[in-house]
Amino acid sequence: MDINDLLQNLREALEITPDNDKLRAHLAQTLLTAGKAEEATTEYKRVLETSPRDSKSKLGLAKAYSAMQQWSAAIVILEDLHKQGPPDHDVHLLYSRVLLQEGSNGKAMDIYEELLKRWPDRPDADLDEQFRVTGQGPEPDYDDEDYEDDGPPGDLRASDLIVKTDVSFADVGGMQGVKDEISMKIIQPLLHPDLYKAYGKKIGGGILLYGPPGCGKTHIARATAGEIKATFISMGISDVLDMWIGKSERNMHRVFEVARKNAPCVLFIDEIDALGANRSHMRQSAGSHVINQFLTEMDGIDADNEGLLIIGATNMPWHIDPAFRRPGRFDRTIFVPPPDAEGRESILEILLKSKPTKDVDLRTIAKKTEHFSGADLKAVIDIAIEEKLRSAMKTGVPEPMTTKDLLKGAGTHKATTREWFITAKNYALYANESGLYDEILKYTK
Fold it and tell me: Which residues neighbour 35 within 8 Å (Cβ) at sequence distance 6 or greater?
């Protein structure tokens, strides 16, 4: 039978028995198989309205969201299925894949490791290749020479970690609250060392920035180093995680040692949720050992972290182990929202500085781009430039961008922060015992 005929038959049968959840779930699955994910989503939601504990329909809804690349919506469902159990191979597999798509590499690896422990005879070739799980040989021997600046090839070196930065706070639009917090942590202590010493305050510490993607968390970290002419080190999950047992922890120690030797230093850790996922979700995985090593380095038990400012950035603070926010570690957690109208105006001015423009009304554009992130504003400018290039290719005459061009670009592009706030608001409403997400609730109101 043709798939369209089957769908028609199922719909006709549902008209006769609209309360038949099993039949509706079958329709939803058939729609998903036929590539009609949006329609499948509608049917799965109707099933779950009357049967909220139907795990198969929940998984089906997560698959439908995944097919539409709505990763955050899929993750919320899969996280619930993973926590509530019972263990399910398909849930683990899809959860790992979706986390990987969203950029949560560390947690995706932990979920896949858990899958392999439960179902060792059912691996996934794509995830094996991604996480370098197969083909492991004997662990190589590493000695203390690995920590020298000119260590053996393949090991982390200072020259590989230190990044040059030529931006400062003047290049960051808006974000005044974040700038003030960072200033108190490292800029003012360097300017007034005796005053801080009198109060027993150290230079440095930890600041955790969270908020929707594209709002300037990486940019502000880089600008902090530029503001005080400090060393800047950007550490990602790929710099630390290694297939060999114990090597990831040694890599972590290596990064901190380089930072300490080059103080004052800003050590920036992007997507810190990949390194700082909740240990209770990891059980005995290797990721738990990496987290313990990271916490040890932050505490500075065996070394002095004076002059070391550690800035962590995440789009998903709800995935971070609570131990990270203990005093002495990331003791300042700062919400980085989309820029306000004044901030958007400032960002537009910076982004348009080297672009050909004519009589651009930045204030008008800023008003029309509410909820836009810095990355969204850059996309608006890119759209306007592309339109101008198309016109110039026809006429042979390049023309500057105007307010009208940029407003047209703003009308074409949609704010990417909205989906993040949908997910974040759920956590703020139902998982906010510590008050961590009060700023999100305040912003959304």
Answer: 67
> Per CATH, which fold does 150-334 belong to?
Rossmann fold (3.40.50)
How does pLDDT run across 168-186, given as a tens digit for each residue? Answer: 998 888 788 888 888 888 8
Beta strand spans in 55-173 (E): 162-163
Cα–Cα distance, 185 to 228 (Å, whole number): 12
Quick: pLDDT tens for 290-309: 888 888 888 876 778 888 99
For residue 256, count other CB atoms closer than 10 A to its CB: 23
Q: Which fold has domain 341-414?
A: Helicase, Ruva Protein; domain 3 (1.10.8)
What pLDDT, on the 0 to 100 scale, is given for residue 137? 33
pTM score, whole prediction: 0.62
231-235 vs 162-163, strand pairing mode: antiparallel
Tell me the average confidence (pLDDT) per consecutive run of 10 residues in the chain, 445 residues long. 82 88 90 91 92 92 93 91 89 92 80 88 84 42 42 55 84 85 84 84 87 90 89 82 72 89 90 66 57 84 83 89 83 89 92 91 95 94 94 88 95 92 88 85 85
Residue 280, token pair as written in the block: 């209770």
| Residues 262 and 243 sit within 8 Å (Cβ to Cβ) | no
* CB 287 within 8 Å of CB 131: no
User: CA-to-CA distance for 137 and 134, rounded, in angstroms?
Assistant: 9
Domains of the chain by residue range: 3-131, 150-334, 341-414
Structure tokens at 336: 């980085």
Question: For 3-131, which CATH superfamily applies?
Answer: Tetratricopeptide repeat domain (1.25.40.10)
Helices (H), 103-192: 105-118, 125-131, 158-161, 176-182, 188-191
- Angle, vertex CA 209, rays to CA 203 and CA 211, nearest 5: 165
User: Are 240 and 255 spatial neighbours (Cβ–Cβ below 8 Å)?
Assistant: yes
CA–CA gap between residue 24 and residue 45 (Å, rounded): 10
pLDDT digits (tens, 9 = 90+) for 1-53: 678 888 888 888 888 888 898 999 999 999 999 899 999 999 999 999 999 88
SS3 readout for 205-266: EEEEEECCCCCCHHHHHHHHHHHCCCEEEEECHHHHCCCCCCHHHHHHHHHHHHHHHCCCEE
CA distance 71 to 76: 9
Helix (H, G, I), strand (E, B) or coil at 332: strand
Q: What mean pLDDT, rounded, does the chain reach?
A: 84
